[in-house]
Amino acid sequence: MPDPQQPPHRQTNPEGLRALFLNCTLKRSPELSHTSGLIDKSADIMRANGVEVSIIRPVDLDIATGVYPDMTERGWNHDDWPIVAAEVKRADILVLAGPIWLGDNSSITKRTIERLYSMSGMTQANGQFLYYGKTAGALLTGNEDGVKHCAMNILYSLQHIGFSIPPAADAGWIGEAGPGPSYLDAGSGGPENNFTNRNTTFMTWNLLHMADMLRRNNGLPAWGNLPGEWKDRDRSEPHPNPEYR
Question: Of 37, 75, 140, 200, which is least surrounded by CB within 10 A?
Answer without folding.
Answer: 75
